Amino acid sequence: MSEQDKPNPSAPAVPVPAKTVKFIHKQGDRLPTYHADGAWGVTNQHGNIRISFYTENIPVPTAAVNPVHPDGSPTGEQELEGVIDPKYFLMIRDFQCNVVLSITSAVQVHQMLGNFIRIAQENMAAQVKVMENQMKEAAEKKPVQ
Predict the structure, then answer these.
(1) How many other C-beta atoms can be found within 10 angstroms of the C-beta atom of residue 53?
(2) Residue that wins the pLDDT comparison between 140 and 114
(3) How far is CA 131 from CA 115, 125, 127, in A?
(4) Share of the chain above pLDDT 70, in %
């Protein structure tokens, strides 16, 4: 490379015009969908936030015994076997998936959830008004006996 073709480090950099960013969304072939009744979260020493999503269910009996009469017909009763705790009502939290977020991503998710919650609450309030109006109209049309 000749001296003329070499870049001059002291020359000012030519500004590159900023471009609008376009994100292409792609769903992988194995993109599962989960239902969550709640979440449990922790942070780690790197500042990441791990959220573990779970479903809640009562324990499923390990067996069901259906007694029968001497003639073999069912009594209509059922005895459930399984985990029984006389002191507590048992609930199983079945953790379905973990999501680890950087603080930047967590802030973005927080903002997105805030927007979705606001929209859902507005929609619910509008639906309540529609139902109240329908009930009022129905009551006004009801013939007096």
Answers:
(1) 18
(2) 114
(3) 24, 10, 6
(4) 91
**SS3 state of residue 6:** coil
pLDDT band at 30 (very low <50, low <70, confident <90, very high): confident
Residue with tokens 């007096």: 144
Residue 61 CB burial class (10 angstroms; 0-12, 13-18, ≥19)? middle
DSSP symbol at 96: E
- Specify the pTM: 0.63
pLDDT in tens, 107-124: 999 999 999 999 999 999
Distance of alpha carbon 41 from alpha carbon 43, whole angstroms? 7
Distance CA 102, CA 48 (A): 5
